[in-house]
Write a structure and sequence with these properties.
By secondary structure, this protein is mostly helical. The protein is about 65% helix and about 5% strand. The chain is built from ten helices and three strands, in the order ααββααααααααβ. Strands 2-1-3 form a three-stranded antiparallel β-sheet, covered by helices on one side. A hairpin with a 4-residue loop joins β1 and β2. α4 crosses α9. The longest helix is centred in the N-terminal third of the chain and has 31 residues.
Amino acid sequence: MLPIAALLVLVVAPLAFAVIGMVRTRGESPVPREASPPWRWRTSVASMLLYTLAFNVTFFVQELFLVLPKALTPGLRPTLFHNNHGWEGTHPLASLFQGTGALATLLVGIAAGLWLRRTRTGPAWWRLLVFWMAFSGVFMALPQAVIGALVPQGDVGMAMTYFGLGPAAKTTMALLALAAMPPFALWLLRPLLELAGDPVQVAGAGARMRFVWLAAALPALFAIALIVPFRVPREWVEVLLLPVIVTVAGLAWMQAGAWRNRAVRPLEGAGGWPIGALLAAVIALLAVFQLVLRPGIAFY
């Protein structure tokens, strides 16, 4: 049941929603090609680098908050790694604390999204970073509820077992998580579209869908290749599965629903994209992951 529900929510429903948008906006006057400014590829490159940063920072938050509760629990000796965590010892609460990482990223994602929706200040690169933090936080957490219902050995699956949830309760939680993905993705669309440098870039349904593709979807897909070095060495399924799930789960709905946001008011004077500084930040974070975290940091 759950794999079918996931297929419907993440593939079939977004496609249907995009078709509905095409039908509803069919009579809309398209933006003349000559009136549309040329796309600034620096925006796409910056978005790719910012998503790489946000994804890995969010993953670090997840693992850190899997480790910290265990570090405070007598009998548990946890160690934080660049792509995982482990612990020695036993305690009844260890299974419960396997759910604290997803909870932490979910709260970070919601907080970042609320800040974006309530403010219109800050340079463009900062707002796009917060956007990707909101995106990564929520879409790193919600799919884990679905996976946890299917795989008891997973992090959230172990937390579900601690609470004694039966198959029906696990399925209900997974379905609620799936149901929460589309509204959150659509909720984040306006802050993304507000980053358009020219109102013409978001003036029509087609223009908005093009902006989402070039400013978010395409950069995020390319960013998966940059995320891989942060996660190796590990089984390739583990290396690739999480970035792909997180990326596709949210962006499918954002791309499909871009036609809806008609009253977008782009920010003024948001500034440019410091590509050099962002690339340096990605390299520095990779060095931290591979040189500091990879050997393991003991929290005992």
